[in-house]
Each structure stands twice: as C-alpha cells, then as structure tokens.
C-alpha cells in the first residue's frame, strides 16, 4: 500500500513523546490567552513589544484594507507590487542604510531564497561554500542543504571552529557565505558579531545575518543587531529580518546592495513565483516601524527582562545566559519538560515545552518569552509558578 510509512512514523513520534498538535487560541487580550475555555498568562509569544494588538497597527490594517483591499492579487513581478510595498522597502533601505530591500511572505522563504538563489543547482560552482552556526534556524539549514554548495556547520558561537573550517576549505572555496543569527531563537543569546566580521574579512567571505529575533528590539531605534553594532552594508552584505515578532505584523525582508537585490528579483524563485504579501500588511508594517522609533516599549521590555532574571535568581531557577526576551529553562528530559509545562498550565501560565527536533536531543526546555505588555505582577506570578512547579516535580521524580 502506498505511503504506509505515514502511520508508522506518526506512531513512533507519539511513542517518543515528540507528538505535535495545535491549540486553538479562542481569545487574546494583552498578555492573556484563552484555550479550551481557560485563561492563561501567555509566556510563549514572539510579540516582544506588544505591537500586534496596538492601536497604531490595528488602525493601519483598517486603513490599508480600505485603500488596497485584502489581498495583493498577483506575484510582485506581475501586478502584485503596490505603492505600499514600495514605500515599505524604501523606508527600510533608508533607515538601515542599504541600497535596496526586498519583501518576502515569511522569514522561512527569505532564508531559502538567499541560499537557493546565490547557490542554485547548476548555475554556481560546486566549490561554493556555506558555513552556518550549528543553531541556525531550520529554514536556512533546509535551504543550504537543498542548494549546490558545500554546506558546513560550526559549533554554536565558536569562532575558532569556524576559522578552522574556513582554513580547511580555503584551497577550493570560490564564494563563501557565513551565516548566523542576531538573537538565537531557542537560546536567546547573541552572535559574536565583531569576531565574525574579522573572520569574514580574513577569508574574503560574505556575512549573512538572520535578525528575526533582534529586529524591532535591539538598537537605538529598534533596527536590530545591524544598528546595535553599526554594521554597514559592506560589513554585512546580507541582512534578513522578519516583521512577525517584535513588529507585530507578518512577512520578512532581505536588505543589501542594489546588485544583490536586483539579482534576487531575477533569480529568487521564492520571490518570483509567490503571490505578494497583501498591500494592507505592508502598510501596517510601515506604520508599526515608524511607531517603534520611540524607545518606550523597548525600555519597558528591558525592565521586565531584568526583573524576571533577578526574581528567578533569588529562588534558584536555572536560566541560560540570555539578556533578551527569550529566557529558556533547560531541562534536558522530555518527560520532565512536558510535565513542567503542564503543571504551569494548571497554575495559569502558558509556557511551551520545546523538544527535539526543534532543539538538539537532550536539550529539552521551556522557552519563556517576555513582552513589554507583561505587567510587573505577571512576572512575579510567573516566577512564583515556576518555583512551585519545579519544587513539586522534583519531589515526584526523586
């Protein structure tokens, strides 16, 4: 019988405690969500600044739909590229100090487009090289594995290991792309950008940055890691970031030189053959970006992060070394991680359990995400619940 494997692999996934299912969010108000009729404080959202439900973004969506209707109607190279898309690209290029910007429907497609356009099968030399951080997002890894280039991965934030890989490939590599994330999505730590810059210059390579979780939050005006470290277009030739986290809308962009963007317009199949993002979405994104220039929400988020870390330390809750909104608690055991997540739900806290293959085997964790819309009392409630849940489970598993 065709596709018999489907049943067996699904059964195996259940047996391994790795089964994934969706939860219907019945309502969401500020940091509260309702699931199956129960209300929870949500600590699993990437809406780091609370802009998704802000009046600025909500009104911009309404205005955008009134002006442009709900969809785009075509791919960007046919009739799907509107004034709203153009204005968003021009704004981003100006504030990021890049020649041009290109919009994508998601960070997943943008990352895949970078790999497959720059290293497309049959059009580039087989000596081309991609070297990515071990914890690079699955979208980039999938894209790199599917293209016609040698693909290597260096140990997480280990610049010595990266250098050794580059030295071993230097005799054969023609075009080299080094890829990392600004803020790593599961650990919450940041890449050693300045060291990576030195390495790329030594090896005549391009540095590519996936700043999905830094864009909107880091930097003086919230433009992410490139602003935080003042990375020029020459230093950082390929910048990708998304709008679906801190900016509160959806979609993504790639920023770079005029030649790079023109090349992607002509050769990035993920762009050429996809319906453009709705123009109303582009309009709402632009208004959100303009509103986020003010530092109020970013400052409030930093206050909540420091408050959480201090309270957690006071009750001996072990945290990974992160100063960002992503605050993981490493458990290392699948059953215990699932049990802890469930115990927190009983206490009114929604904190998702993250397991393999999203994270490496043996690094199961709770991935807590903080937001500017959390109140001080919410952080206190989270830490109290964590302390109670961890204590309860320690007794159960002894």
TrEMBL record:
Please give the catalytic activity noted in the UniProt record: 6-carboxyhexanoyl-[ACP] + L-alanine + H(+) = (8S)-8-amino-7-oxononanoate + holo-[ACP] + CO2
Family matches, as Gene3D superfamilies:
Aspartate Aminotransferase, domain 1 (3.90.1150.10), Type I PLP-dependent aspartate aminotransferase-like (Major domain) (3.40.640.10)
**Cleavable signal peptide:** none
Quote the pathway field.
Cofactor biosynthesis; biotin biosynthesis
In short, the EC number is 2.3.1.47
Q: Which cofactor does it need?
A: pyridoxal 5'-phosphate
The protein's GO terms of the molecular function aspect are:
8-amino-7-oxononanoate synthase activity; pyridoxal phosphate binding
Q: What class of enzyme is it?
A: transferase
Q: Name one GO biological process term.
A: biotin biosynthetic process
**Family annotation (InterPro entries):** Aminotrans_II_pyridoxalP_BS, Aminotransferase_I/II_large, AON_synthase_class-II, PyrdxlP-dep_Trfase, PyrdxlP-dep_Trfase_major, PyrdxlP-dep_Trfase_small
Question: Is the Transferase keyword given for this protein?
Answer: yes
Can you give the residue ranges of the Aminotransferase class I/classII large domain? 39-386
UniProt key word Transferase: yes
Instruction: State the UniProt keywords alphabetically.
Output: Biotin biosynthesis, Pyridoxal phosphate, Transferase
Q: Which PROSITE patterns match?
A: AA_TRANSFER_CLASS_2
The record ties this protein, via Pfam families, to: Aminotran_1_2
How does this chain assemble?
Answer: Homodimer.
Matches recorded under PANTHER family: 8-AMINO-7-OXONONANOATE SYNTHASE, CLASS II AMINOTRANSFERASE/8-AMINO-7-OXONONANOATE SYNTHASE
Which family would the database say this protein is a member of? Belongs to the class-II pyridoxal-phosphate-dependent aminotransferase family. BioF subfamily.
**Name of this chain's protein:** 8-amino-7-oxononanoate synthase
What organism is recorded for this protein? Paraglaciecola hydrolytica
Lineage runs: Bacteria, Pseudomonadati, Pseudomonadota, Gammaproteobacteria, Alteromonadales
